[in-house]
Specification:
This protein has about 160 residues and is α+β, with helices and mostly antiparallel strands. It is about 40% helix and about 15% strand. The protein has a three-stranded antiparallel sheet. The chain is globular and about 50 Å long. The model has no long low-confidence stretch (mean pLDDT about 80).
């Protein structure tokens, strides 16, 4: 199965990207994805596609990449969003230097621009990123407790469990 890396250049590519991304986060189910990024209904698919296309058009730091399987009609089997910043958009933590070695394309671009690289990951992705040389820097916890929570909020809490 020959795979090809391609740079996304058109809005029309996002139907397949969104389909691939939604399928990948559905099995195994990633509840944070559902909570923050995607309503699994057909309307949610359309909304997500619109949001990603808007980011693709408007964010100069964004570069979408796809992996396609040429044996099955150039089907998108993977996608990634690389954001390249020429200035650090986050706070500087001098006590915790990080090294990052990842896909050659991202590393080459970061090296070319003399930039550091970092990634945010789910628990499922953490081991993969560590195996590629990323250094664990911390965990973000989601606290869902809320006084006088609405029925919708309580349903979201159940969905997260």
């Amino acid at each position: 199965m020959p795979f090809q890396l391609r740079t996304v250049s058109s809005d029309t590519e996002f139907n397949e990207i969104v389909q691939c991304v939604c399928e990948s986060y559905a099995t195994p189910l990633n509840r944070l994805w559902r909570l923050f990024r995607h309503d699994p209904s057909p309307a949610g698919f359309i909304e997500l596609r619109k949001r990603l296309v808007r980011e693709f058009r408007e964010d100069p730091a964004a570069c979408w990449l796809t992996i396609v399987d040429t044996d099955i009609g150039d089907k998108v089997v993977g996608a990634a969003l690389w954001n390249t910043y020429t200035e650090n958009p986050y706070p500087i933590f001098k006590d915790h230097p990080m090294e990052a070695y990842w896909w050659p394309e991202g590393v080459k671009e970061a090296d070319r621009l003399n930039l550091e690289a970092f990634i945010e990951a789910t628990d499922l992705g953490k081991l993969t990123y560590e195996a590629c040389g990323f250094v664990y820097a911390g965990t973000n916890y989601l606290e869902s407790a809320k006084r006088n929570a609405s029925p919708e909020w309580k349903q979201l809490e159940r969905d997260m469990q």
